Hints:
By secondary structure, this protein is an alpha/beta fold. The chain has 20 helices and twelve strands. β9 (481-494) and β10 (497-504) form a beta hairpin. It starts with a helix and ends in an 11-residue tail after the last helix.
Amino acid sequence: TEEAKDFLYFLMACLNPHDRYINFLLVGALYGKNDADLKALSDSERREIYELFTLLGQQWRDGAAVSLLWMQFLDTLAVREQLLRKSDGERKLTNYLHIVEFAQELERTESLSPERLRDRMLETIQNVSGNDECLVRLESDGRAVKIMTSHSSKGLEFPIVFLPSIWQRGINKLSKSDELIRTDADDPDCFDCFEADADSVVARSSAENLRLGYVAMTRAVHFCVYYNARDLPKQHGGSNHKDGWFDQWLFQQRGEQYPTEVEAGFLNTLSEAAAVELDAPAADPVVQTRHLGHAIPQSYQITSYSSLARSEQASLVDADPSISAGMGDSPVEVSEVAPVVTEVPRTPDLLLESFPGGVRTGTCLHEILERCDFTKPELWGRVAGSIIARHFPDGGESVFEERVHQVVELVERLTRHPHSNLERLSIDLSELSPKACIPEMEFYFPVEQVNVAKLELIIQSWAQRVGFDYKPTNYRARSIDGFLTGSVDLFFTQGGRYYLLDWKTNRPLRNHVKLQSSYDRIGMHEHMSHGRYYLQALIYSVAIAAYLRNRLGDRFDWKTHIGGFVYCYVRGVGEGTGWFHESFLEAEVHAAAVALGQMSHTKGDA
Length: 606
């Protein structure tokens, strides 16, 4: 069967993640890609697929059961959900499960190695006969009893539905103290503030319970039975459920009073109930296409810093600014003609040289620095080791140990002493508790008629004020409305001030020597300019300011609360290098908010 071939290709890809076997899977039912989709796959997507099979193969050789790996693979691709939407999907899913059961039995009874199990499955598929056990088909589960949650039943229907626990949905007392998001009255998509109102929590939770109850009851085509269990003994001395909440609600809708005592003999009356007569099914309704009453403007979009930075020229719309900034596999030019390096070459002293170039290294280091508790040095090696082993399963033990050592050395340099900037603002990472941090803080805020050229002029004015030479980038004009989104690597507070920090793994530019001295203040300014990171820092500053105004309210004060932005170039962290700490003025961030359309007050605040 095709399912058996997919499983065989899966085994082959795990043991040898070659393009041939992976392509067989990509064009099969599991990935469902065609020739055009294969050609459109980016290098990063290819690398991610390759790393998945490399990791699964390593787990298999380390003793993991093949059934566990197969189910993990199906969950990664959300195969169950995809197949069950198709008419023959249930049959395919049953075949997939039957095949892995057969393989698991072979692996267990014959004590097969991964390579030998692959060969045995290949032999079985090639030599299968009409009476072979491998051709057994499990009957369809279409008429079987299905047990599922109300949430997972959305979009499905069944002839008869039983709801044995709908009465149990109550309001937990602890949840009444939770903070809820309040949205703008005129625009529900816009955040207004947080509120902690027990009555609102109960009202919203009750409304959600009713919606979920409606979903569950309307799954029935012919008949629905729900249960109401009252006066049950309270478990562990208490209960967080309202007795018969749904039944109480039904009585309220009828204008009746809910019984205070259990009606004796209620079940006995069911035998006297008249049969329910069903009307003949009505004719199928005429399906008509709904038409949108207004046109969506071409300018409406959800954009980001990366999208704005890619609009430097029309021919560079699909370029990645991080690659041109030196985050790729090799350094790049700052200009067409590289200046002559006059510094006498010395032994390279950059960090993380055992890591390859590319996005994978950046992803790995970002995750390590995100999960690392700077106040607990005894855990640094363990955290780094677990994450490096997952991102770089190949390379050997010596390479792995060297990478862990280099990451620990990086964290030691970051926490060895406080980092101060020209404004005498000091940050001590060794005292930075995880409770004072929000890693990967995402934001959305509405924008109208974004003026990128104005943002560049703001950056130029700021650069002149702090002593930098900055040439504004000539972005192509385009109309942008909608929302702007982004993710701050680390947002934290220390000493009463709030900072945003972005980790950068950029290699030295071609006109820089491969030394830590290349990451001094002027060198990092060239990185910031070339990678267009000042635009990122300005947008992030607007988002952070809006966030703090919403959270602190009238207590927010720019001079005492804002600590600025930090860009840490991890390969060059040393004494006075690799740590770029600057800040914008309140007027500059306000002007940036105006250029982003944030001050129009037609869509609400960030």
